[in-house]
Amino acid sequence: MRGGGLWQLGQSITRRLSQTDKKSITRRCFASEADLKKTVLYDFHVAHGGKMVPFAGWSMPIQYKDSIMDSTLNCRENGSLFDVSHMCGLSLKGKNSIAFLEKLVIGDIAGLAPGTGTLSVLTNEKGGAIDDTVITKVTDDHIYLVVNAGCRDKDLDHIEGHMKAFKAKGGDVGWHIHDERSLLALQGPLAAPVLQHLTKDDLSKMYFGEFHILDINGAECFLTRTGYTGEDGFEISVPSEHAVDLAKALLEKSEGKIRLTGLGARDSLRLEAGLCLYGNDMEQHVTPIEAGLTWAVGKRRRSEGGFLGADVILKQIADGPAIRRVGFFSSGPPPRGHSEIVDDQGSALGEVTSGGFSPCLKKNIAMGYLKSGSHKAGTKVKIVIRGKSYEGVVTKMPFVPTKYYKPT
Amino acid sequence: MALRMWASSTANALRISRSTNNSQLSLTRCFSSVLDGLKYATSHEWVKHEGDVATIGITDHAQDHLGELVFVELPEIGATITKGGPFGAVESVKATSDVNSPISGEVVEVNSSLSDSPGSINTSPYAEGWMIKLKPSSPTELNSLMNPAEYTKFCEDEDAAH
User: Fold this and answer.
1) Residue to test with chain A: of B3, B9, B63, B96, most A Cβ within 10 A
2) Which residues carry this modification: N6-lipoyllysine (chain B) (predicted)?
3) What is the band of B33 on the pLDDT scale with cuts at 50, 70, 90?
């Protein structure tokens, strides 16, 4: 979920480079930078030492002055503030919004209590994932969802196409894309106490997955208790003209403990939390069942179907998928996307989709897809990196325990 | 370091921020540790030639761009290495980079302590963080490498180009 294949991009450039010369790469990178979109926090990032890189058409900070290692650890110890304004927030409004959206996603949106949300998946006719998204039922006729920056155009085209057909049949639904807003993610153990300084609402009564519209630091914000790190935390949709002030206030109230954190540490954090990065760990040809998101198919949806690709997905739930997303620990160099996974005899079992060195666990972690049968925790595999095989073992995820704020 | 490193998003990012923002500070920090007596390759490795052995590692500038290293891959003793070809790899939390040899020769020793402490390359790139020792097969190749002043200028120009 979230993002747009940063590391995949890095890896594909790496592969291409071995066959080309440096000058052409320099030109290519240089040319693209002028076309990049900037969030309203761009100057703020640069002023704080942000190292800006192209990401899904945006210029975003990959890290600040702290190393990726230190940033990752500080998020879990204190907290992180991320600018995720490149992600696309949109509202569906109208009395048939839920009926419309349920044709496109696997979740039981009708069954959500107002003011709560869930991770879900937009599917295609073959049951493959178009994108993952966090969907909130604000009220019975207002849905708020956030989709990946890298998937924005295709998601909006997909939704718009289906919306036209739905409205032509008399359905009442319309949309608003929240380009007037910016999105900040505040994550880690200090997220709630620090945010509490800036709002009168009692955050101790707001649990994981819940959504409020409230005043934060003098601006009307959409607040979701969610995130992409495995920590407790929030995503704050703030009117863009108030975004810089809010970022400053959050950092100030934490007395320097919550630090600006870039996409590099964000990727380490989500990997440690066992969360998918769309474009790496989930793609058009992968179903949510294969990706381990069977839990996100609501019970009612399993019996009723009625979403794109339901025939494929419901059959996979009944029979079990042929491949499954799993986690690995491994020795040797950190596995990266596309590292091959084989058995003792060298026969192919699958492929790594994301991997790296875990700053918290101080060892290699990875996720990838394996043939069903070899997917059980404890199964020993070999991971092939630069032609050499290294020991790996299938491991349950999350790698680092999650700390979502749930009622006890 | 191989081209791969400079193409990585992180490396590009570092240069962008330096040329537009606090370049003075970063350049000072960056080039303060180019050592006299060593020769440098455009791919950011250093060579120290003593007698019939040449010691090779990556520069302080290179380790600074990469960040904390978590794994180092080294060749076998006895391996034959060609100038410009990769002899190993270094991995940071996020990026993988080949390490190219500035000269040709036969590997006579490798720094096996790096397998337990790859971070030595970050803390001591020119001493404890050395990677391999070669018996050079064409010592004249050393003449094609940069001296410290030339390498400093090279890094400056490369940063300025971004």
Assistant:
1) B9
2) 94
3) confident
Which two structure tokens, joined as six digits, stand for A293? 């998101």
Report chain B's terminal Cα–Cα distance, integer Å: 18
The better pLDDT of the pair B27, A226 is held by A226
Residues from chain A that touch B22, judged by Cβ atoms under 8 A, are 49
Average pLDDT, chain A: 92
- Listed by start position, the domains of chain B span 1-30, 39-139
pLDDT band at A32 (very low <50, low <70, confident <90, very high): low
CB of A18 within 8 Å of a chain B CB? The answer is yes
**Phi, psi angle pair for B159, to nearest 5°:** -65, -40
Output the pTM of the full model.
0.87
Architecture of domain B39-139: Beta Barrel (2.40)
Residues of chain B contacting A, Cβ within 8 Å: 3-4, 6-10, 12-14, 16-17, 20-22, 67-68, 70-71, 73, 89, 91-96, 161-162
The model's pLDDT over A266-293, given as tens digits with 9 standing for 90+, comes to: 999 999 999 999 999 999 999 999 999 9
**Minimal C-alpha gap between B108 and chain A (Å):** 22
* Complete domains list, chain A, with CATH: 6-85+180-272 (3.30.1360.120), 322-408 (2.40.30.110)
